[in-house]
Design goal:
With 285 residues, this protein is an alpha/beta fold. It contains eleven helices and twelve strands. Strand 10, helix 10 and strand 11 form a beta-alpha-beta unit. The two termini are 32 Å apart.
């Protein structure tokens, strides 16, 4: 991900800085001379997966295009222990102080998503299931949060409603049934788009596969129910992809992976990930 070429992310970072700095950092202006230079260290206060160094760098770049690059001692996706200094930055002290909070907010959020995703990925190791995200993201941060999921070892589901066909219960009710919804979707979308259908029982599963669905979403099933539906689906169409979703926590995600699904979508990767604890300590140089 090259952030410096992504106008959408750069515009968002500018807005975040404007929100935080407002008419100016009056504390720094009142206490720190403008020519003072500082050396900042990013310190992990807990075990975490590093993610978002380039985002933090882009924050300081917005304040001073002459700012040097952040020097990171570990790469994106690496795990570090509490007490590890994983990146450093030199620059004018007022720039470091002005960008500190926004850089940390984004870095802590992205590391949190990547760290939680890594826990889910490890929980299903040894199975064929892949952990994927959802659209349950923070408004304005979807691209960054979904990037963090990939750094944690997960995969991305749809980025937005324009990114794929997912026929859910409300679509089915409004279209008049699963067969009708799938038929209309096949007529209206391009041949490159796969069609996914959410089902909740055996009858709906059979109807969705008969209608030509490429992917089946098993929503809010128990692991035992999911295993039975997987077996039935494979008998009807060995090539159909099967996704499980609904209340996936770390205690039971492996049981769904062992039920034979291909994908497990986890909304809490983004909507419930805890921001990790990172500090940014600055000293004069």
């Amino acid at each position: 991900m090259n952030l410096f070429e992504n106008s959408e992310i750069i515009a968002s970072i500018s807005e975040f800085l404007s929100e935080d700095i407002g008419r100016g950092d009056i504390t720094t202006q009142a206490t720190v001379l403008p020519d003072v230079r500082g050396y900042g260290k990013f310190l992990a206060k807990e075990n975490l997966v590093v993610c978002g160094i380039e985002v933090a760098e882009a924050v300081f770049f917005q304040l001073d295009p002459e700012s040097p690059e952040i020097e990171s001692t570990v790469g994106e996706g690496n795990e570090v222990e509490a007490g590890t200094v994983f990146a450093t930055l030199k620059g004018f002290a007022d720039v470091l102080l002005g960008g500190e909070r926004v850089a940390l907010n984004l870095l802590q959020r992205m590391c949190g998503v990547a760290t939680l995703t890594r826990q889910y990925v490890k929980a299903v190791e040894g199975t064929n299931a892949k952990i994927i995200d959802t659209r349950k993201t923070t408004p304005g941060l979807r691209m960054l949060e979904k990037y963090a999921v990939t750094i944690g070892g997960g995969k991305n589901h749809r980025f937005g409603l324009d990114d794929g066909v997912l026929i859910k219960d409300n679509h089915i009710a409004l279209a008049g049934g699963i067969t009708e919804a799938v038929s209309m979707a096949k007529l209206k979308v391009g041949h490159l788009h796969k069609i996914e259908v959410e089902i909740s029982n055996w009858a709906q599963l059979r109807e969705a596969i008969s209608a030509g669905a490429d992917i089946i979403l098993l929503d809010n099933q128990t692991p035992e129910e999911a295993e039975k539906l997987v077996e039935m689906a494979r008998q009807l169409n060995p090539n159909v992809l099967l996704e499980a979703s609904g209340g996936m926590d770390l205690d039971r995600v492996r049981s769904f992976a062992e039920a034979g699904v291909d994908l497990i979508s986890v909304g809490r990767l983004t909507h419930s990930a805890k921001a990790v604890d990172i500090s940014f300590k600055i000293q004069t140089i």
